Automatic annotation (TrEMBL):
Native source organism of the sequence: Phytopseudomonas argentinensis
Domain spans labelled Bifunctional transglycosylase second: 52-135
Residue ranges crossing the lipid bilayer per the database entry: none
MF annotations from Gene Ontology: penicillin binding; peptidoglycan glycosyltransferase activity; serine-type D-Ala-D-Ala carboxypeptidase activity
Protein name: Penicillin-binding protein 1B
Pfam families given in the database record: Transgly (PF00912), Transpeptidase (PF00905), UB2H (PF14814)
Pathway: Cell wall biogenesis; peptidoglycan biosynthesis; Glycan biosynthesis
Keywords: Antibiotic resistance, Carboxypeptidase, Cell membrane, Cell shape, Cell wall biogenesis/degradation, Glycosyltransferase, Hydrolase, Membrane, Multifunctional enzyme, Peptidoglycan synthesis, Protease, Transferase
Domain annotation Glycosyl transferase family: ranges: 147-317
Length: 755
């Protein structure tokens, strides 16, 4: 026996050394990860904050819609952060506060009174006037790492009442007494499982659960269980209970949102309730804690009855253990689950805009920075306008359903602020919430008649030769190219319109007069104008370019029209305003840039002609849905065989470009007016924009002219109208009245003016 005993001692010593070595190895792993950077946190992308001020054009319903999406609770009195009370035209809200790029916005109570669709007054809780109030921005998405984990990191002092007590009561009632492994808990689990004849309770402590989720795999084996227990003990040796509990609250898996894994109570609160964790009530806390046992099995969206029973069981347990009173538990059990619907603005997906944000960020940051460092990206995205754009597009497709080929038509849409170039809404597909090919950024298509404003702007920059009332000929012609081929353009209606005013060629989108004008100006000169408008693509100087054979994306078209809408000032389009670190430290701003590219007078005349497009030309159908008092400017565009339907138009505060077409470049049943213009009109009707009101530049004068002849006229003459001219190019004042119209081709225009 003595030799055997000797060998046993030796083997025991070897085993002890190996065990000690293994323990040292595990200890190094535990400390390295837990003391270092524990999680890779994706960048968070926020919408613009909604700013409230007196005189602001904002409908009460739009404010409430955004507050609902932000998870504000409708209550009788707004007496805490995240609460809102509505009484008639008055909205009382208690903002949550937020760390913005330049400063922290404090939580405060704000009273808003509406008059129609405007903010009539803004006061504090004490009744004093408030200059401006800013709500926290909506979280619209994130930039995720390859493993697709997401979480909102929280501190232990940010958790709501009852969360820690409930978690400990349900998952590990001896948490504050054991050393990482609970012999009592293991014994209790064995007894309960043996009594029930099935596995009903596990013996793992919260610390063991954290170790399993944080360090190990889901493998079921004795070796892994021993490793888990050892690491749990080591973790408790180095770190206090509060640190371990805080890590658990941030690590625990609580659901799956498509490819995104929802980790931690902070994100779960946003995902299921659209509210910050700190605002959750007892019943909501019980629901989330109940999901720890089985996030899929107890998912309240998929299995509401199962989740409700689990929540109520936990509330009964809290009452039994004295954590809450029986009355509190009964009141909590009487409440509905209160889970928000997926697809609301708060937890919806805006893939086209997020795609834009990623592309702009990658010019300045590495992918690792965007997916691991928890950057906070603040954008110009307007969720209210996005929702209205999506509704307008869906309504247009629904109305056109049944037309041959309509179901195969796709779409892209861009909405910006004309003054700043900030992108406020973006749609990359007729199915706006599905990620995929982003047509707003990547669909390179012939722009058709959208090029025409560039031709007329080139002419209007030469006031000694061209004015809005210069006569041009809309007659057939042909041009022989260097390759011997003959180019012979035609009007859409296959008719020639004779002698017309220059502005009529743009308003009615006549191809013959426009192409002839472009050839007189020189195709290279028109292409230079396009470049100044912001088009960077290099097109060959072929005559066909004058009628839109060149290709652009909807975003590039928006950049071109942005310069027109902003009075000749080029403002590069941008979707990002600023970037903060995960700790709230300012990192980078994306300032507003502007460069004057055109004379204000020439742009003013062009805008005047584009307004006439809406009043009497190809865009006139908008006023069947919009008030006639709303001044707008725009241009339709249709490519050959109606393969592309375009509309680009703007008000004082909104520029919107819509494209509709097929991905296979096949013909559609739409022109610019019957397709894209309908979606544009539907959006503008919902957005209720401000009328276009460009101040008259110093070098522009108004002159009275005869509507039929374009010659100077006295103000009181029949048919006299005022037209803008660059100073010095206006016709001489008329001596009298009674001049007869020499041609019939302009009578439609005359009738329009007289009406």
């Amino acid at each position: 026996m003595r030799p055997l005993l000797g060998w046993a001692v030796k083997l025991g010593l070897v085993g002890l050394v190996l065990f000690a070595g293994f323990a040292v190895y595990l200890d190094a792993i535990v400390q390295e990860k837990f003391s270092g950077k524990r999680w890779t946190v994706p960048a968070k992308v926020y919408a613009r904050p909604l700013e409230l001020f007196v005189g602001q054009k904002l409908a009460k319903d739009d404010l409430l819609k955004e507050m609902d999406a932000l998870g504000y609770r409708r209550e009788s009195v707004a007496n805490g952060p995240g609460a809102v009370a509505v009484s008639g035209n008055n909205v009382s809200l208690h903002s949550r506060g937020f760390q913005f790029y330049e400063s922290a916005e404090q939580a405060q109570q704000v009273n808003v009174r509406f008059s129609g669709d405007y903010v009539a007054s803004l006061t504090k809780a004490d009744g004093k006037d408030l200059a401006v109030a800013r709500l926290e921005p909506m979280l619209i998405g994130g930039l995720y790492p390859a493993h697709q984990e997401d979480r909102v990191l929280i501190k232990l002092d940010q958790v709501p009442a009852y969360l820690v007590e409930t978690l400990v009561a349900v998952e590990d009632r001896d948490f504050f007494d054991h050393f990482g492994v609970s012999p009592k808990g293991i014994a209790r689990a064995i007894w309960i499982n043996a009594s029930a004849g099935q596995l009903r309770q596990g013996g793992s402590t919260l610390t063991q659960q954290l170790v399993k989720n944080f360090y190990l795999t889901n493998e079921r084996s004795l070796t892994r269980k021993i490793t888990e227990a050892m690491m749990a003990v080591l973790l408790e040796l180095h770190y206090d209970k509060r640190e371990i509990l805080e890590a658990y609250l941030n690590e625990v898996f609580l659901g799956q949102d498509g490819q995104r894994a929802v980790h931690g109570f902070g994100l779960a609160s946003q995902y299921f309730f659209s509210q910050p964790l700190s605002e959750l009530k007892l019943d909501q806390v019980a629901l989330l804690v109940g999901m720890v046992k089985g996030p899929t099995y107890y998912n309240p969206r998929r299995n509401p009855e199962r989740a409700l029973n689990r929540r109520n069981m936990i509330l009964d347990l809290l009452a039994e253990q004295g954590v809450v009173s029986p009355e509190e538990a009964a009141a909590a059990k009487a409440r509905p689950l209160g889970v928000t619907q997926r697809g609301s603005m708060a937890n919806g997906s805006f893939p086209a805009f997020l795609d834009l944000v990623k592309r702009q960020l990658r010019q300045d940051y590495r992918d690792e920075d965007l997916t691991e460092e928890g950057l906070r990206i603040f954008t110009s995205f307007d969720p209210i306008l996005q929702l209205k754009a999506e509704e307008a597009l869906a309504e247009t497709f629904k109305r056109q359903a049944g037309r041959k080929g309509a179901d195969e038509v796709e779409a892209g849409m861009v909405v910006t602020n004309p003054e700043t170039g900030e992108i406020q809404a973006l749609i990359g597909s007729r199915q706006a919430r599905f990620a995929g090919f982003n047509r707003a950024l990547d669909a390179v298509r012939p722009i058709g008649s959208l090029i025409k404003p560039a031709i007329y702007l080139t002419a209007l920059e030469r006031p000694s030769q061209y004015t809005l009332t210069t006569r041009v000929q809309d007659e057939p012609f042909s041009v022989k190219g260097q390759d011997g081929q003959v180019w012979k353009p035609q009007n859409y209606d296959r008719e020639a319109h004779g002698s017309i005013y220059l502005y009529q060629g743009l308003a009615h989108s006549y191809n013959l007069s426009t192409a002839k004008l472009g050839l007189e100006l020189g195709v290279p000169n028109v292409l230079k104008t396009l470049e100044r408008l912001g088009v960077s693509r290099q097109w060959p100087a072929y005559p066909s370019m004058l009628l839109g054979a060149g290709v652009l994306t909807p975003m590039e078209v928006t950049g071109m029209y942005q310069t027109i809408a902003s009075g000749g000032f080029n403002t590069p389009l941008r979707g990002i305003r600023s970037v903060l670190t995960a700790e709230g430290e300012p990192l980078k701003r994306y300032p507003y840039q502007i460069q004057q590219r055109f004379d204000a007078g020439a742009i003013y005349l062009l805008q005047n002609a584009m307004q006439r497009t809406m009043r009497e030309g190809t865009g006139r159908s908008v006023y069947s849905q919009l008030p006639s008092s709303l001044t707008l400017a725009g241009k339709t565009g249709t490519s050959n065989d109606s393969r592309d339907s375009w509309f680009a138009g703007f008000s004082q505060d909104l520029l919107t470009v819509v494209w509709m077409g097929r991905d296979d470049n096949g013909p559609t049943p739409f022109t610019g007016a019957t397709g894209a213009l309908q979606a544009w009109t539907g959006f503008m009707r919902r957005a209720d924009p401000l009328p276009l009101d460009m101040p008259m530049p110093d070098n522009v004068v108004l002159a009275w002219v005869d509507a039929a002849t374009g010659q100077g006229s006295a103000q009181n003459c029949p048919g006299a109208v005022q037209m803008p001219y660059i100073r010095g190019s206006e016709p001489a004042p008329g001596a009298g009245c009674g001049i007869q119209a020499p041609v019939d081709s302009v009578m439609d225009w005359v009738k329009g003016w007289l009406e």
